Amino acid sequence: MSAEARRWIAIVPAYNEEPNIGHVIDELRAFDPDLDVVVISDGSADRTAEVASEHGAHVVRLPFNLGIGGAVQTGFRYAHENGYELAVRCDGDGQHDPSELSKVLAPVLAGEADIAIGSRFAGGEGYRSSATRRIGIRLLALIVSAIARQRVTDTTSGFQALNRKALELFAADYPHDYPEVEGMVMTIKHRLRLCEVPVTMREREHGRSSITALRSIYYMAKVLVALFVGLFRRRVVPAEDLRSRRARRSRSRSQRQPRRSCSCSSSSS
User: Fold this and answer.
1) What are 51-61's pLDDT values in tens digits?
2) Do 179 and 170 form a contact (C-beta atoms < 8 A)?
3) Which of 74, 101, 142, 249 has a CA 20 to 30 Å removed from the CA of 92?
4) Residue 261 buriedness (CB in 10 A; 0-12 / 13-18 / 19+)
5) Residue 243: inside a domain
């Protein structure tokens, strides 16, 4: 089934992206004029929300900055609660090229994956961030691959396509601190099918990233601690197993309940 035959939406988290957000929405609509777009303005202090609305997007305004994890989960919840079957995620800084969406969508539409991630390091070219960040991303990829027992190459990519099953999971529970890295491990532990596709990413045209070389090192250290702590958490129970257990308990309770007997008396006249 094609994307056009489904209800689908683009989720765009944005924090102070007034110069970029309008162009991002226009590019998404150029890819598919019928694509719904929701922009999550994460406590932006500029006109991000107003510009997004002027360009025809649905806008969710968060009253203060939740961070990327909280903003993205807000988008997942919006998509899930409004009945969308398919969602794509693009960042609001313009680094993700909507013309590449067909590549990211293909495995999900073909039923081969629940989540497809656009990877800069799976064969794509173009902008790949600073050398410090590339080293950190590759190290994280090795660690996540070992934990998840599946090879991954780009653990910080937010260029994604998700089906309804993945939306249901992330609408209910999504990492807030390091969402892409921890979310990748979470996906596989919940037995969702994840794949990467090569894409080309761009350097942002306006503004600059808040992640400097020093912050990259700090981020790397904190992610490693979060992953290490995660190894000692109780075993994840996939959502489908939880539903199955609840159904069995419900059937068991109904079978144990005594049946009410009805005594009928007849009178003769």
Assistant:
1) 999 999 999 99
2) no
3) 142
4) exposed
5) no
Asked, for residue 118, whether it belongs to a domain, the answer is yes
Cα(80)–Cα(91) distance, rounded to whole angstroms? Answer: 19
Sign of CA dihedral 17, 18, 23, 26: positive
Domain that holds residue 204: 3-238
Q: Are 154 and 136 in contact (CB under 8 A)?
A: no
Q: What is the pTM of this model?
A: 0.79
**Interval 140-166: pLDDT, tens:** 889 888 888 889 999 889 999 999 999
Is 18 contained in some domain?
yes
Angle (deg, nearest 10), helices 68-81 and 164-172: 130
Closest CA to 204 of 45, 75, 39, 15: 15
Q: Counting runs of H as helices and runs of E as strands, what totals does the chain give? A: 9, 7
Would you state the structure tokens that stand for residue 144, as one six-digit string?
A: 């996540």
